[in-house]
Amino acid sequence: MHLELRHLRSLRAIHEQGGLARAAEVLNLTQSALSHQVKALEEQAGVELFLRRTKPLRLSAAGMRLLRTAEQVLPLIDAAEAEFRAVEQGRAGRLHVAMECHHCFDWLLPVIDRFRRAWPEVDLDIRASLSLKALPALQKGQVDLVISSDPEEIAGVTFQPLFDYAPTLVVAADHPLAAKGYADPEDLRSETLITYPMERARLDVFSQFLDPAGVEPAEIRQVEQTAVALMLVASGRGVSVMPDWVLRAQATNPELVTIPLGPKGKLRRLYAALREEDLAQPYMAYVLRLARTEPLRFLR
Q: Domain named HTH lysR-type: which ranges (predicted)?
């Protein structure tokens, strides 16, 4: 039997409306067209689907079996069509985010929380496990937005600026550099440098400060959590470089001192990388706007 969705919808409408005339109105068909459709369906099935001698019109046993099929299938089809319309209208989609900055969770999570309230039909995810291969994952379609401070020339990918930050050295309050007021690369040659477990090229302290000067710290210690890194610094077990907005919460901590990298400090910019074709999506424009404004609230 060749069964079409219109057959199932017609069967359901006739059952719910109790007759051909009202069902035809609901389906926006003529009564004659609906009658011919039912007759053709019955010929294919080889059985009567309706008890025509009853008023209102009732389904036969075979018709009831087919109605149960319609009640299972049609809601799924209706839901899929609604999702397609939402995607077409820009209300639905996917936003899987990856990060190349280990510390971005602090301001990104409030951004995502506000976003999901405004765009509940968009599928959200944060793919921290892809942090070291985030841009290739973006090209392959595995993620949709990458937070990065290192823009690259990548075909089909655009880097949208978010906000500026200053990589800043944090040392114990009694460290000699605290009195100096700033750090030169040579100052870190004898230090234990506490870093996040990231690719060296993605760490500002190396790419922007030590590597250009040809300086290697005495030891590198990798720590997952910011709070643990700061505890080690306060204990005199090393120094660390973090964005100024991460360290701003430590301004009243008497055990820590923050100083700029170099006499004038360093300034970096954070970007959101996304595929060029996604830039026109309304929900993507919304999350970019949040990503530019929410960090300012966080800083304040």
A: 3-60
The conformation of residue 138, written as its DSSP 8-state character, comes to: H
Are 135 and 154 in contact by the 8 Å Cβ rule? The answer is yes
Nearest to 103 by CA among 230, 256, 286: 230
* Residue 292 · residue 147 · CB < 8 Å: no
- Residue 193 contacts residue 205 (beta carbons within 8 Å): yes
Strands 93-99 and 145-148: parallel
Instruction: Quote the crossing angle between the two packed helices 105-118 and 282-299, to the nearest 10°.
Output: 140
**Which one of 3.10.270.10, 2.60.40.10, 3.40.190.10, 3.40.30.10 gives the CATH number of domain 167-260?**
3.40.190.10
- Note if the pTM is more than 0.90: no
- pLDDT tops 80 at residue 3: no
SS3 3: coil
Tokens of 88: 């077409």
How far apart are alpha carbons 13 and 36 in whole angstroms? 15
